[in-house]
Design brief:
The protein is mainly β. It has two domains: 8-23 and 162-276, Sandwich (Immunoglobulin-like), CATH 2.60.40; 36-158, Immunoglobulin-like (Sandwich). The chain contains three helices and 17 strands. The chain has helices spanning 8-18, 80-92, 211-216; strands at 36-41, 44-46, 50-51, 54-62, 69-73, 101-106, 114-118, 121-127, 143-148, 166-171, 174-176, 184-192, 198-205, 224-233, 238-245, 248-253, 271-276. Bound molecules: copper (II) ion.
Length: 277
């Protein structure tokens, strides 16, 4: 049976759920020792309580199960009840509920680090992946409050944004920017200039497979290898994704659901082929 275009999002979701033990993806650059390591288990996230401000690499260890861990910024003066209300609202809200802002995050499959910006104040790390019961993991305790302390002189190294090699713009509902990238280790600057949350998942087509084949495939995983991913980024936010690119064709796509139609953005056209010559 061939999947039609509308079934595509569901097939990809299934692919992501089923994505296991794929060991042939290219390693991304090693995480910085000053980064934030998050260990995810079923019903539990562990991470530092306090981190310095600035651009910090986030690293995900999936000790048990698959997780999508997003760093949400809350107002710096958010109270404990406001934090709890936000965490509760995350489960059912299609987009990031106010007053939270998604600053980027780590895709399931522990595909590699992402670099996000922390300003002094209160953040919540939470897993937005849906379980078999339809609820996001955050509902079962996979959240953590992260305090970002005030800046000191020693933080100056992390104060400036990392130097990117390519820019990926995200709008409702498309990726904008060059359709050709350079092979080798790259740092993608991922910018959301749209009005909805977006993400960037990157898969590399296997030799001989076309974008059309991939879109129509019953099992997209057989035609492409998922390489890297940036989880939810809210409008106006910027985050960075390190990736090592090989010669070939990559597909960028977004599985965030549209608030009105409930359809994943990929079904609304948010996918793009990018060549790496
Ligand atoms: Cu999107």
């Amino acid at each position: 049976m061939r999947m039609n275009y509308r079934g595509r999002g569901r097939a990809i979701v299934a692919m992501c759920v089923a994505f296991t033990a794929c060991r042939d993806h290219v390693p991304t650059p090693a995480s910085s020792p000053t980064g934030v390591t998050i260990v995810a288990r079923s019903g539990n996230l562990s991470a530092p309580d306090t981190v310095p401000p600035g651009w910090l690499p986030l690293h995900l260890e999936e000790a048990e199960g698959r997780h999508i861990v997003v760093a949400f910024r809350l107002p710096a003066n958010a109270t404990a009840p406001e934090v709890s209300a936000f965490v509760e609202a995350l489960d059912t809200a299609p987009a990031t509920p106010a007053p939270g802002v998604a600053t980027g995050g780590l895709e399931n499959g522990a595909l590699g680090d992402v670099v996000v910006h922390f300003t002094p104040g209160v953040y919540v790390l939470a897993c937005v992946r849906r379980g078999d019961d339809g609820h996001r993991h955050v509902r079962n305790g996979e959240s953590r409050v992260l305090h970002v302390r005030p800046a000191t002189l020693a933080d100056s190294a992390a104060a400036t944004a990392p130097r990117h090699t390519h820019v990926v713009g995200m709008v409702d509902f498309a990726y904008v920017g060059p359709e050709q990238w350079t092979a080798g280790p790259q740092l993608l600057r991922v910018e959301n200039t749209g009005k909805q949350d977006h993400q960037l998942r990157l898969s590399r087509l296997r030799e001989g497979a076309s974008l059309g084949d991939w879109m129509q495939a019953e099992n997209p995983d057989s035609l492409a290898i998922t390489m890297a991913g940036m989880a939810r980024v809210s409008p106006g936010e910027v985050a960075y994704l390190p990736v090592t690119l090989m010669k070939g064709t990559y597909v960028a796509y977004c599985l965030v659901a549209d608030g009105a139609s409930k359809r994943p953005h990929i079904e609304l056209g948010m996918l793009r082929a990018i060549q790496v010559p």
